[in-house]
Amino acid sequence: MTKDIEFKLWLEFEEVDPGNWDTKNEFANIHVDLPDGRHYGINIWTFKFLETAIKHDEINGENLGGLYQTPPDLFVKELTRNCIQQVIADLLKKGNLEDSLNTSVIDGNN
């Protein structure tokens, strides 16, 4: 069995206007700090927010009128601490976050 890796989690939606976020249709930034000093900044969208972003671009003409989206680092079902904590723990069990996500999640200051 793979050992759980401890991590510290900072969630934008808990710090900025807490309680006033749409947990099913929103995006946020998170920070993950590992005991070994690695730090990750991750842009997260909910599955539903992808649809919202496309509709927004269709209306405003951005991204060729919704023809494409530049994806976030990670999609999740909902923006809650419980959901995100489970997701990050699962990804860490599989290996390094930079191997599961794109390299933009790595803090270049380390």
Name some characteristics of this structure:
110 residues, four-stranded mixed beta sheet, single chain, alpha+beta, 4 strands
- Kindly name the structural category: alpha+beta
Strand order of the largest sheet: 1-2-3-4
Number of helices: 5
What average pLDDT do the residues reach? 91
Can you tell me the overall shape? globular
- Gyration radius (Cα, Å) is 15 Å
What order do the helices and strands follow? EHEEHHEHH
How many structurally independent domains?
Answer: 1
Draw up the topology in text:
Blueprint: E1 8-11, H1 12-15, E2 27-33, E3 39-46, H2 47-60, H3 62-66, E4 74-76, H4 81-94, H5 97-100
Parallel strand pairs: 3-4
Antiparallel strand pairs: 1-2, 2-3
Description:
- The chain has 110 residues and is an alpha+beta fold.
- The chain has one domain.
- 37% of the residues lie in helices and 20% in strands.
- It contains 5 helices and 4 strands; from the N terminus they run E-H-E-E-H-H-E-H-H.
- It has a 4-stranded mixed sheet with strand order 1-2-3-4.
- A hairpin with a 5-residue loop joins strand 2 (27-33) and strand 3.
- The radius of gyration is 15 Å and the shape is globular.
- The two termini are 30 Å apart.
- The mean pLDDT is 91.
